[in-house]
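Extended Data, panel c. Modelled sequence:
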Amino acid sequence: MPKRFKVINLILLLIAILFCFIILEFVLRLLYPLEYNLNKEYILTNHNVFGRVPNLEYLYKHPEFEQIITLNSKGYRDYEHELNKNDSIFRVAFVGDSFTDAYQVSFNESIPRLIEDKLNQNSNSKYEILNFGMQGFGLVPEVILIEEEVLMYKPNLIILNFFVGNDFVKMDTGVINAIPNNFWTGEHNSLKPKIYKLSFSTRVRSFLNRKFMLYSTAKKLILNNKKDNLSSEGLSDIYLKEYPSQLNENLKKTEDIFKFLKDLTSKNNSSLLIVLVPTKEQIGLTLLDNISLNNYNLEKPQKELINLLEKNDINYVNLLPKLKAENINNTFYWGLDGHFNKLGYRKASEIIYSELTLNL
């Protein structure tokens, strides 16, 4: 075959492959619009955690619910806040994962909004609640977010919603570059320049993940092939009566981070409150009817976390007892989704509000 025809055939082959990629990309966007919208949300920041596109608005559609999600100019599901605070205002900053930004309910049904309404209705003081919830974040990026962004708003109180289901398992989810353990225990500021630096490859991967479903889907498939933290019964290892070494290491790291956070907030004249958010299976035991629980203690995560919080004199609220006591046939969670439903967010806000009224 003449060389000219080989070149033409190669060009035609490349065009065909490109066409197939375009069609597949288009199909994936049609089949998974929610995932595509979520991928578009996340952008790089200069402090090693992902941010979200400012002023973004889209439909978050789930089989059990759908919500219009609107982000403010800083990329949070919140209204706009001035950086400077009037001295007459008591400012509270909520930080956490998807239980905090609460895409499963309307904006006004999220915990920060419900609590702000209650505080301002029942007090002569003026309260302002800021929502720094970031869907998918683990403990590590949440604390970096507090240091690099939240404290600029000079909150009087920082409330960290800690989801026991994964916040001491997938602790680093949401960071860009890996964080060494000594970042929390001694060499913090000296490590920042190296850790926070964005490489060219990081920028390229972020661009591909935001723009192309093919890339993000392939990455997700690869990550899903890695072993998850589940036992043979399908329950997370966080409920085991005896923790494996990795979870014990994670608990130690969690304690180091909590100690760092307590010191950080104290130096910045902010109080700290940790809210322990339970999992659906902890509230509704009937969800586990066909599983043997001989080797498990479903309240083990709270037991371990409360132990280290009390050891370090850190204030906390444990949502589990009251939610469990009032649960009837999965009252507070969606059936398919693992998050609170409207009643769950409302009840959680009432529990936190009661604690706040005792201490404010």
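The chain has a mean pLDDT of 89. This feature is highlighted in the accompanying rendering.
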